[in-house]
Automatic annotation (TrEMBL):
InterPro entries from the UniProt entry: AAA_dom (IPR025669), DNA_Partitioning_ATPase (IPR050678), P-loop_NTPase (IPR027417)
Span of domain AAA: 11-189
Function (record text): Involved in chromosome partition. Localize to both poles of the predivisional cell following completion of DNA replication.
The protein's name in its UniProt record: Chromosome partitioning protein ParA
Organism of this sequence: Gemmobacter caeni
Pfam name, any one: AAA_31
High-level lineage: Bacteria, Pseudomonadati, Pseudomonadota, Alphaproteobacteria, Rhodobacterales
Length: 271
């Protein structure tokens, strides 16, 4: 039962797809930056042992003294792990390779699927004054991903515009249904965002047509194009919206952020 004396919980969105290389981390980082531009305060939680979201937001490996691993395995308050980034109001809970062993270490814990859920609802989260929490999931249907699905209000699925793109979705949808039945009945699918889309390519156009025919309104109107600036930005440890604000990739992620914010009423409140 919620405590009426506490602030409203931030909107928690899991960015996930068990298929690798579809743009999960890129989407988490740049969607977060887009939401910040709309006036939101956003936390990205890095749940991938590769720590790419942490690197992409400028947190060097040696500066990750407290990480998501400590939050999940050692019951450290998430506010102790959170770090600021070069972008005001964009925060990161970093990850490193320690998280690779989390699945094995979590198995014996009775609350193994709810550790992130509880961490994001602890009293210390209020002090961060967040509007959104974006969970950057690993490319697998592991216990880390299950933690994200149990903690989240909704799921955002990046889908690469390539052959077999829709094939991997069935297992993810099954997992989401199982989590709904067993642990998080309110979990909903926020939507599917097409990434790495090349409008000149017949295959990309066919994937889009198939996705919209199969998933209907679940597919965001915004499409993220294949864009060299989006690919370059992580090597400069910043979102593409900061690296090249006028690029096609930046425009797409701004549009995606606005589309998401309108759904949640944020745009009306802030714009």
């Amino acid at each position: 039962m919620s405590d009426p004396s506490r602030p409203k919980l931030p909107r928690i969105v899991a960015v996930t797809n068990q298929k690798g290389g579809v743009g999960k981390t890129t989407t988490a980082i740049n969607l977060a930056a887009g939401l910040v531009e709309l006036g939101a305060r956003v936390l990205v939680v890095d749940l991938d042992p590769q720590g790419n979201a942490s690197t992409g937001l400028g947190i060097e490996a040696q500066d990750r003294a407290v990480t998501t691993y400590d939050v999940l395995l050692d019951d450290v308050p998430i506010s102790d792990a959170v770090q600021t980034t070069i972008i005001e109001n964009l925060l990161i809970c970093p990850a490193n390779a320690d998280l690779a062993s989390a699945d094995i270490e979590l198995v014996a814990n009775e609350k193994r699927s709810f550790l992130l859920h509880d961490a994001l609802r602890a009293i210390d989260i209020d002090n961060l004054k967040l509007d959104y929490v974006l969970l950057d999931c690993p490319p697998s249907l592991s216990l880390l991903t299950v933690n994200a699905l149990c903690a989240a209000h909704s799921v955002l699925i990046p889908l690469q515009s390539e052959f077999f793109a829709l094939e991997g979705l069935s297992q993810l949808m099954l997992t989401i249904r199982q989590v709904r039945e067993a642990a998080n009945p309110a979990l909903r699918i926020e939507g599917v965002v097409l990434t790495m889309h090349d409008a000149r390519n017949n295959l990309s156009q066919q994937v889009e047509a198939d996705a919209r025919a199969t998933l209907g309104d679940l597919v965001f109107k915004t499409i993220v194009p294949r864009n060299v600036r989006v690919s370059e930005a992580p090597s400069y440890a910043m979102p593409v919206l900061t690296y090249d604000s006028a690029s096609k990739g930046s425009e797409a992620y701004r549009a995606l952020a606005l589309e998401l914010a309108v759904r949640h009423g944020l745009a009306q409140e802030r714009i």
